[in-house]
From TrEMBL:
<dbReference type="GO" id="GO:0005737">
    <property type="term" value="C:cytoplasm"/>
</dbReference>
<protein>
    <recommendedName>
        <fullName>Aldehyde dehydrogenase domain-containing protein</fullName>
    </recommendedName>
</protein>
<feature type="domain" description="Aldehyde dehydrogenase">
    <location>
        <begin position="8"/>
        <end position="442"/>
    </location>
</feature>
<keyword id="KW-0560">Oxidoreductase</keyword>
<dbReference type="GO" id="GO:0004029">
    <property type="term" value="F:aldehyde dehydrogenase (NAD+) activity"/>
</dbReference>
<dbReference type="GO" id="GO:0006081">
    <property type="term" value="P:aldehyde metabolic process"/>
</dbReference>
<comment type="similarity">
    <text>Belongs to the aldehyde dehydrogenase family.</text>
</comment>
<feature type="active site">
    <location>
        <position position="215"/>
    </location>
</feature>
Length: 470
């Protein structure tokens, strides 16, 4: 992968600052034109985008289309349709003591923005936030993950054909280039990635007082209570959410707590569901609908996690290291029952296709178990027929987002905010929430300047003229 030289990074930043200062990016018509270019780019280049995703992550055209390409296009179309209302000034009343005054909240662009993306959804995590940035009237630089060289190259080759670099540009590189980017002043940085790097980004941004949104990861629990919904549909939903992108999904269920009465049935249903989707364990490697891991090292990490979990008492239910092939970046969908709490699998974000299943007695025990885990989950999933039980978990377990009786779908729902809490990040994206993140709401007060509204000049010194104050 060829990296963007430092001088080019500074020049792009400078060019975007200059363009923003002309106010050219403010009119809604200009913004809609940029969003229309996003749609045109996706329509005309979907094959190249899809091919790049297949090269980097073994994603099938269908998976790439559904989870990356189409969602980004929909994000742009939704922004075009709603831009007038999202950006409309809101008029509000002033408190009585300030009367007569007229108050408004203007929705203004922030300026020059930076989007830093992770490897797992290399197109949508870069382009999705960029859509919000453009909709809000900003310029934007995207820094995709260096671990996806095909996607990076595709973006670097194609973006200049659709966008002026002063409006939208791609910077390629790894730590040195991101470090260079972080030395510059930004009006918003939208970072998606790990908690470890999130801390580095937030620390660097503090030095230039650049505002940051952090979309991080973590361990998202999934709970199946005694009163679970229909078994087969539930198992299919959970196995789909775990196996999509070979488990490299920030909101994939990371571990499952099953109320003990249901353990046997759930394990059996999970196995059947996996076989229906990908065939028998020893045949799954040939199944091209199952994505690959991003790297050989990433696959080796999963293999060592399984070894560690087995030595901590975990029993393989299906899958396992012997079916993996690190060189082919393949690790089979693996379910492991009841590994000890000190296993790496239960202390680190898995970010691969391994699902630990832990039995529990009471719903209170499940909450206590989750609360022994470090960090605040990005997502919480509860499968239960009883709404009060879902609410019970919602009250006891804080998380960025949550889903009742399904997985992942809140990510695709642009009418609700998507974001983390605590160690899973702060700020939110998607739809209007993404637009708001890249918008400065400017509070403005207007007041008629006439003696009649001075009310005896009460606000002016000397304050002791009425006695009692000094
Ligand atoms: P990562 O944090 O390693 O890398 C993300 C970006 O940071 C990359 O562009 C990389 O070049 C850059 N980077 C890496 N090290 C850096 C450093 N020392 N200084 C400056 N920049 C650096 O993340 P990843 O491994 O690519 O992605 C996986 C992580 O992302 C997981 O934790 C996952 O949960 C999280 N994630 C979160 C979301 C979300 O929406 N919350 C979505 C996708 C992925």
């Amino acid at each position: 992968m060829s990296s963007t030289p430092n001088e080019k990074i500074s020049a792009l930043h400078e060019a975007q600052k200059k363009l923003f200062a002309t106010s050219k990016t403010r009119p809604l018509m200009w913004r809609k034109q940029q969003l229309a270019k996003v749609v045109k780019f996706i329509d005309e280049c979907s094959t190249q985008i899809s091919d790049a995703l297949t090269k980097d992550l073994g994603k099938t055209a269908f998976e790439g289309e559904v989870t990356e390409i189409e969602v980004t296009k929909l994000e742009a179309l939704e922004a075009i349709e709603n831009l007038d209302s999202w950006s409309a000034t809101e008029y509000v009343s002033a408190p009585g003591a300030l009367m007569p005054s007229f108050c408004e909240m203007r929705k203004e662009p922030r300026g020059v923005t930076l989007v830093i993306g992770p490897f797992n959804y290399p197109f949508s995590t870069g382009f999705g936030p960029a859509v919000s940035a453009l909709a809000a009237g900003n310029t934007c630089i995207i820094k995709p993950s260096e671990m996806c060289p095909a996607t990076d190259k595709m973006l670097r080759d194609l973006i200049p054909k659709y966008f002026d670099p002063e409006v939208l540009a791609v910077v390629s590189g790894a730590i040195p280039e991101t470090t260079k980017l972080m030395e510059l002043e930004w009006d918003m940085i939208f970072f998606t990635g790990s908690e470890r790097v999130g801390k580095i980004i937030a620390g660097a941004a503090a030095k230039t007082l650049s505002p940051v949104i952090l979309e991080l990861g973590g361990k998202s629990p999934l709970i199946i209570t005694k009163e679970m919904p229909e078994l087969e549909a539930m198992a299919n939903r959970i196995m789909w959410g775990k196996t999509i992108n070979a488990g490299q999904t920030c909101v994939a269920p990371d571990y499952v707590l099953v109320q003990e009465e249901n353990v046997e049935a759930v394990l059996e249903a999970f196995k059947t569901s996996l076989e229906n989707m990908f065939g028998k364990t020893n045949e799954q490697i040939k199944n091209s609908t199952f994505s690959r891991n991003v790297s050989v090292d990433h696959t080796k990490r999963l293999i060592s996690m399984i070894d560690d979990a087995k030595s901590n008492g975990g029993k393989i239910v299906t899958g396992g290291s012997e079916y993996g092939d690190a060189k082919a970046k393949y690790f089979p969908p693996t379910i492991i029952y009841n590994p000890g709490p000190k296993s790496k699998i239960l202390t680190e974000e898995i970010f691969g296709c391994i699902l630990p299943i832990i039995p529990y007695k009471t719903n209170g025990d499940a909450i206590r178990y989750i609360n022994t885990m470090r960090g605040t989950p990005l997502a919480l999933y509860v499968f239960t027929r009883i709404r009060e039980h879902f609410d019970f978990f919602m009250d006891a377990v804080p998380s960025g987002g949550a889903v009742h009786n399904d997985v992942l779908l809140h990510f695709a729902c642009s009418t609700i905010p998507f974001g983390g809490l605590g160690t899973s990040g702060y700020g939110s994206g998607h739809g209007k929430h993404g637009f708001d993140s890249f918008t400065h709401t400017r509070g403005v007060l207007s007041k008629p300047c006439k003696g009649i509204f001075e009310f005896g000049g009460i606000r002016y010194p000397p304050y002791d003229r009425y006695g009692g104050f000094s």
